């Protein structure tokens, strides 16, 4: 029997698994196992690591108890944050290992939401020295989450009415419209409308009204937080600008890294910074136009990128930290959303997240590839039935393919992702939020 293409692994109890091509650091000394949904098994003990599936044994790697966070003698060093509820497809792990072999790469870290991307994994951080890799950041530079408190009352919630009031917000905003929404001079945000400024975009991007469901730590909430109000979570990025930047770079340099201090590196970093500013502005404009449609005010509580590059120091070593679908753990409070039919969590990173390269998950992470979602779901669900979740929340999505691709079933359970990070000592839970209205597109979105 041929092995299946996909392999998901699940661990038997909470651990952080640092994996290397020829070395693996164990945080326990006893024998353990990793199980998969299709009958595969990872079996390991302190000196050996084997992957067994249907009689197929892949090359083993060895544990090296002497490896620690400050030791870079092994350049292909990988950490994966996982616990008993974590599922990670084998293709994603393979991509992580391949990325770890890039020249000048010191170490990589996979988050619990790790999943395979277009050549490089999503839900991971990569730390290199002397060189950096724009292709690891991808085309959506600056993609991230902005969390707003609105003036809308949670007690007077009417999702269908709010959805109707929104109408279509898929068209780019002109500079005059930007200025009217923000009350600032258009010269402060000189981006043309051909970059789709003020729009959410396709894929996993969204804007979602939420209500607080559980507060774990009142003392860690923002001072202005009001649980009687609805919150707005906006997930979007740099839209057309980020795509243009990556395309120019790939045409000129392919997937090769850029040497720090070179003219090409300086050019990319300048464009990268512009894309970060655009992405933050874009989330602000999305929130502003939604609040305007609802005739209410709002206040931004946080805005954090999860696709970006920065020069930083980790464990005494200066290098380049790439985050691809990975939330920084050194920027204070962050939001980690589930699918449109699941909870979102406000969390506070702990003081010491170096084991994960100062990085956290950015969401639940995909479980199914986009191309297979409709085939898996259409026999059981119609497009209309997917426009309301198990929570009773309303989903605005008129794209007949996207409604299936972004179904809750296509994503991992967010609680498993949160559990893995909490059990690894990476986060403190602050509050949990439930979706009430998720806006994807009224039919005019683009990737």
Automatic annotation (TrEMBL):
Protein name as catalogued: tRNA-splicing ligase RtcB
Family of this protein: Belongs to the RtcB family.
Family annotation (SUPFAM superfamilies): Hypothetical protein PH1602
Known cofactor(s): Mn(2+)
Keywords: GTP-binding, Ligase, Manganese, Metal-binding, Nucleotide-binding, RNA repair
GO biological process, one term: RNA processing
A GO term, aspect molecular function: RNA ligase (ATP) activity
The species this protein was found in: Neisseria macacae ATCC 33926
E.C. number: 6.5.1.-
Active-site residues per Swiss-Prot or TrEMBL entry: 362
Superkingdom: Bacteria
Residues holding Mn(2+) 2: 235, 306
UniProt-annotated binding residues for Mn(2+) 1: 140, 205
Protein's UniProt keywords contain Signal: no
Positions contributing to GMP binding: 204-208, 306-307, 344, 362-365, 440
Catalytic activity: a 3'-end 3'-phospho-ribonucleotide-RNA + a 5'-end dephospho-ribonucleoside-RNA + GTP = a ribonucleotidyl-ribonucleotide-RNA + GMP + diphosphate
UniProt subunit comment: Monomer.
Co-factor note (free text): Binds 2 manganese ions per subunit.
């Amino acid at each position: 029997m041929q092995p299946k293409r996909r392999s998901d692994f699940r661990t038997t109890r909470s651990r952080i698994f640092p994996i290397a091509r020829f070395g693996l650091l164990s945080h326990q000394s006893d024998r353990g196992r990793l199980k998969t949904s299709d009958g595969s098994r990872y079996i390991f003990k302190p000196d050996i690591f084997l992957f067994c599936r249907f009689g197929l044994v892949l090359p083993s790697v060895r544990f090296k108890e002497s490896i620690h966070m400050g030791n870079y003698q092994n350049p292909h060093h990988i950490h994966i944050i996982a616990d008993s509820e974590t599922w990670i497809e084998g293709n994603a792990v393979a991509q992580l290992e391949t990325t770890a072999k890039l020249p000048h790469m010191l170490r990589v870290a996979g988050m619990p939401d790790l999943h395979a991307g277009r050549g490089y994994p999503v839900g991971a951080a990569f730390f290199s020295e002397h060189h950096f890799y724009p292709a690891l950041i991808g085309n959506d530079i600056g993609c991230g989450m902005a969390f707003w408190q609105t003036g809308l009352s949670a007690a007077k919630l009417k999702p269908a009415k709010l959805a109707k009031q929104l109408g279509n917000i898929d068209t780019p905003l002109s500079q005059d419209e930007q200025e009217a929404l923000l009350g600032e001079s258009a010269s402060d945000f000189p981006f043309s409308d051909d970059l789709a400024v003020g729009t959410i975009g396709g894929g996993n991007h969204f804007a979602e009204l939420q209500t607080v469901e559980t507060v774990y730590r009142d003392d860690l909430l923002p001072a202005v937080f009001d649980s009687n109000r609805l919150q707005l979570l906006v997930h979007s990025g740099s839209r057309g600008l980020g795509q243009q930047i990556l395309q120019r770079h790939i045409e000129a340099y392919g997937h090769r890294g850029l040497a720090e201090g070179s003219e090409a590196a300086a050019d990319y970093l300048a464009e990268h910074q512009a894309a970060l500013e655009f992405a933050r502005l874009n989330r602000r404009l999305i929130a502003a136009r939604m609040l305007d449609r609802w005739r209410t005010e709002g206040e931004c509580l946080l805005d954090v990128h999860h696709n970006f590059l920065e020069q930083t120091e980790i464990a005494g070593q200066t290098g380049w930290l790439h985050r691809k679908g990975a939330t920084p753990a050194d920027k204070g409070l962050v939001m980690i959303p589930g699918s449109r039919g699941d909870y979102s969590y406000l969390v506070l990173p702990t003081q010491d997240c170096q084991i994960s390269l100062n990085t956290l998950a950015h969401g639940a992470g995909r479980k199914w590839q986009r191309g297979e979602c409709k085939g898996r779901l259409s026999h059981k669900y119609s497009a209309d039935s997917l426009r309301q979740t198990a929570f009773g929340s309303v989903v605005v999505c008129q794209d007949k393919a996207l409604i299936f691709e972004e179904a809750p079933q296509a994503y991992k359970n967010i609680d498993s992702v949160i559990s893995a990070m909490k059990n690894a000592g990476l986060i403190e839970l602050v509050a949990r939020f439930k979706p009430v209205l998720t806006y994807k597109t009224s039919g005019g979105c683009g990737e």
